[in-house]
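> tool_call: predict_assembly(chains=two)
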Amino acid sequence: MKSCWLSFPPLFCLHQIKSTKHTLPKKQRKRVRQRKSYNSKQHLTLHSHQNNTHTTMASTSSLTLTQALLARAISYSSSSDTTTPRAIHLPALPSFSGLKSAPRASSSSSRRRLPARATRRVRAQAVTLDATAETALVEKSVNTIRFLAIDAVEKANSGHPGLPMGCAPMGHILYDEVMRYNPKNPYWFNRDRFVLSAGHGCMLQYALLHLAGYDSVKEEDLAQFRQWESRTPGHPENFETPGVEVTTGPLGQGIANAVGLALAEKNLAARYNKPDSEIVDHYTYVILGDGCQMEGISNEACSLAGHWGLGKLIAFYDDNHISIDGDTEIAFTENVDKRFEALGWHVIWVKEGNTGYDEIRAAIKEAKAVTDKPTLIKVTTTIGFGSPNKANSYSVHGSALGAKEVDATRQNLGWPHPPLHVPEEVKAHWSRHVPEGAALEAEWNAKFAEYEKKYPAEAAELKSIITGELPAGWEKALPTYTPESPAEATRNLSQTNLNALAQVLPGLLGGSADLASSNMTLLKMFGDFQKDTPEERNVRFGVREHGMGAICNGIALHSPGLIPYCATFFVFTDYMRAAIRISALSEAGVIYVMTHDSIGLGEDGPTHQPIEHLASFRAMPNVLMLRPADGNETAGSYKVAVLNRKRPSILALSRQKLPQLPGTSIEGVEKGGYIISDNSSGNKPDVILIGTGSELEIAAKAAEELRKEGKAVRVVSLVSWELFDEQSDSYKESVFPAAVSARVSIEAGSTFGWGKIVGDKGKSIGIDRFGASAPAGKIYKEFGLTVEAVVAAAKQVS
Amino acid sequence: MKSCWLSFPPLFCLHQIKSTKHTLPKKQRKRVRQRKSYNSKQHLTLHSHQNNTHTTMASTSSLTLTQALLARAISYSSSSDTTTPRAIHLPALPSFSGLKSAPRASSSSSRRRLPARATRRVRAQAVTLDATAETALVEKSVNTIRFLAIDAVEKANSGHPGLPMGCAPMGHILYDEVMRYNPKNPYWFNRDRFVLSAGHGCMLQYALLHLAGYDSVKEEDLAQFRQWESRTPGHPENFETPGVEVTTGPLGQGIANAVGLALAEKNLAARYNKPDSEIVDHYTYVILGDGCQMEGISNEACSLAGHWGLGKLIAFYDDNHISIDGDTEIAFTENVDKRFEALGWHVIWVKEGNTGYDEIRAAIKEAKAVTDKPTLIKVTTTIGFGSPNKANSYSVHGSALGAKEVDATRQNLGWPHPPLHVPEEVKAHWSRHVPEGAALEAEWNAKFAEYEKKYPAEAAELKSIITGELPAGWEKALPTYTPESPAEATRNLSQTNLNALAQVLPGLLGGSADLASSNMTLLKMFGDFQKDTPEERNVRFGVREHGMGAICNGIALHSPGLIPYCATFFVFTDYMRAAIRISALSEAGVIYVMTHDSIGLGEDGPTHQPIEHLASFRAMPNVLMLRPADGNETAGSYKVAVLNRKRPSILALSRQKLPQLPGTSIEGVEKGGYIISDNSSGNKPDVILIGTGSELEIAAKAAEELRKEGKAVRVVSLVSWELFDEQSDSYKESVFPAAVSARVSIEAGSTFGWGKIVGDKGKSIGIDRFGASAPAGKIYKEFGLTVEAVVAAAKQVS
């Protein structure tokens, strides 16, 4: 059942309905008829989203069908809305409207364009008109979606038509009947989120965005599917296509992102909603397929979703029994329903998803009624529905149908239209979403303005979360250290930073994969985010690194001011690498707090000791790999991490205590590499010693030894290679003069990649084998990571 | 119920029992009494392992208790076995005995030492002696295990005492009562496998190996727990400690390894067992904890185990409600039992795992009776059982108890002994496992000798799987190519190799994570390994990359001659990186067939295009990263991969067609880097162009252009950096003369790491950003991976 679009009490809706006097254009009549098939037994019902109370209009007012139809009409014709009742006079819009920082080439003017008078609507459901015509229109819309996918894939001769053909009905119902969004501002804060976890079926989403009126997917964009620089790439990419929330394709990521989006909503709603204003209130919808279901990450994330009771997460499982290798019988015979029940989900099965519109609608209604559990709607569909020769086979999964089969499908589904055509009545039918969406946003903006008046402090916080604007002076919270400050493990220094920042950054929240007391990630002033305490900011992920990373991606992409952090041992980034890569690609500024960053963790041995991990992330695009050496560098790393909202930061932190080194600084970290000490002159030291993290101390000590012997020695901290790369040539030359080829690096990790830093004549001291189980000091010594080794190497090269 | 140790028909056992005349020493009487508590209602029963048929002795013979006891006695005293019946005369041992290639510092002499006359035993279960003393001995043994763990962790002041204290009862029952193994030959082929998936509890396994008589864990090894170069590292490592099957610690890996071990058993049993000889016949046991359960990889692997119906996989879930962050309630409230039922497992709950010996025994019996499903035995235990102040808390999970609490625990459990002490009666009790194990192996060897006589072809194949000795001349199966051979994608060439090799390598088996038709991994002469066709060699992993990798580790470590391969898109190595790292660390020679290895895959876009992956694996120790350019190089890569049984190989293969290049060769690949063409003389080209994989063609074409302009150009294929690194300095100089600094590399991946190859004056053409969605040719051009770019760079540097 549809909710009242308004969060105002039902009477407000009634009032509005009664005071409208428009006649209903033909296309809206059709729309109203469609409602009938949705739930013909229901009277016109207003449904308050959050508290699940119902007010049946037929029983509380003398509302007529005509009146109900009139009410709907408002939303289609704002300019003709001349008899606006008092309640419709909107307050001035707040100066922001839930905008995310502008995407590439997005049109901010169009996003901000709102109708002169925002309009309202309410959906009529008790109409008794003939359903045939309505269903015919729905089917035409559904077939439009199917053929947009078929034709775009055919044109590109590349792509995945099967899923869109099977999922078009649920896609239609979601975008046309259920979801609340504003096509002209894809970043409106309170929109419902949709995630296509089965990202290969992206033509489904592009078709829906196109029909809904998003500027990001115009007809020419559909025609450019999978082409260079198009807005319609081969898998959904949030950074390319406004309206796409997250980047999917790698299976299982999307459902986990959706858990993050739903977590963010639940947390923000708990923190900012007031009894008289549900300012945060949206659903998160997902479509996932068999592939997503098989991936371990989805089980991790869904186990957490069940644990957290994310009632506003509604996932559609496209149960089509086909994956790339053929029938799922060959590798996937588990009972998915039962597994999800075991994970604490509400499960509904729609047995005929190709045509069962009413069943899909009823399932969504049921899902919304279950507020303490996420819902899995298993929708049994036919992959490639409509293709007479390829439906229900793997051949329709990931290839164009081919001209002959496209024709046969057109024949079969009665589709006489040319490629990429949207019939006029379908266009007309969908056209209301632009004014409706604008009205929704205007409505919410008005609500926010009232909220702001009553709750200025909360509003200011929420605004900073919505806009991503960091509170002025936040960086003053960062701790600083002197060489006299006590030695401390950088993991502990990290906790000091996190706790300092949590007090000034309302968007900071996160936790660890069951290693909070080792990663030192607890925010001491907050409790645990749990089902019954969703306002808290310590997230307990359990031993689920991969799900954790992807959930954090969802949190980060929910709102620009949400700054999720997550933690495990550095070596276990291997478990979550696919999620970290998506952070980097999708510009999600997650902070990865990765402790136990070397053999320095000691006895746990080689399974727990990272070796190649620094190198492996330095090679990954758009990641900031930071390895601070002490207190100031840890603070600097957090400064950089917080400021970089469009790229993830990975902080590699020590288990073992490290001294506060003279010469380190926050500013130094911001440059990525800098001189911490130097007794040379004229930018011409005899030798440059380079270290990172825990080995910077060794470099510094070796320098002291060498200086005692009269050498001019520079010590450089190369805390972040990426940041250093971005510095000017002159700055780089000031740190690593081309003329000085005597360079020695030391780092407790692979030497891979250091060749470029130390040059042909330099030397790299590192570890190019697996670690060992023993006390840390012993391993350092046996592995030759010592002051003596650096001194010897320095003498060799200089 | 206990199985008959013998695989001979029951009558053989009876014969043997009747003809023995030994009296029973005191310690064996105790052992017999212990049986009573196991199943006091049973008569002495012989249980044929494989077909689950039972022959109750009491009903088929006049066997007396005394006779039964006598039967047991045989196994303890082989030297006094003077009245050997005919059936006990063993054939000469075959020249091999299921040996795996020798581990570091293992004593092959002790492993091969067998008693002069192998002995037999059968277990008596119908005795009616008093159980009290027996239970007391079991408890003493269990407490021995607990205190070995407590004391070793205390001595190291590092480690995880909690799990061993809670799991000691199930550990005792497994190693003392259930499992079939030979302590003096940890590599005996037909042993039961045990995996401690919760690897942090490794002191449990070390204590059990110690009690069972493995030479790898002597008292001095226990005292060296977690110390430099000890046999008892911080997590179980198969390459350090014979008796440890796989390397665990990273959670969830072990249970997935166990699925691989059980798959291997099921496959080999189906292929080699005969109606008259079950030559392959063992169980795989696992202990996993809450952490393993939360990891997605375990759900992936267990879903497959259920799908495959791995009835001889029995997993104990240590359900102790505590993980590092505290009570599992904070992050893990799913219904694990129900989830496993949904995955197709048989589930049993032992509610009192701390003391419920009989319940554990009964559960194992039940599990064995269910032959078409794997079994999860959920054993509810108390972490740190026995510690009066720390039991049932996270504080006992991963830290030494501390002297005071160790004392209190000694007091509480009535343990007066000094640290690391094994009471004499416990020693005596366990001492039979050495002769028993030797007998088991001798028995099996005899059986194999008979099998070999009857089925020489099968025996030869199985032998090569058991020993890892590759069939002579296998490499002749590798295809070769000339420049005239048609252009082909290396993924297709890979399939040609796989199909050629499968015919000569009986141990080759594997498959893809639902991308068989993209990865080109199907073995055309075989069907699918499935529940009802376990003899086949195409494995369908579903979309479960992480589980796939770990399952392949299990297969590889089952038998030296098993050569598992697995496949997905190269970019999705991110999903399975933790498993690949374990391949490398644990010396599992898995072949990773990774196709779609660059932007050359085209339209699928950046989520599917690897960039940093080559670099990230080049940095990982003990991995062979191979990127062949054409047919000969693909064959060469397979040759290297097959030969390297102790390190995994990753083959990066193209989606797109590539020409057969002049100058490539199998021999070249074996050197890692080699010259494919050169028009210089005196080892002094003007410029060296270096390429890998699909870009070698570009380098070759650029060389042609440059040569036309009169340049002396060398083209080097650097197909495997690791192999090249292992060549002699003189060979390296012959390829990359130090005097030639004009070097240009081209590779469709990150330039990270190339600095060392091209040197300070060289240039690297690569991709240091994410990919894009477009036809492949377009992306190559836009990204500057062109002949023109190489020519220009060559002119710049030379």
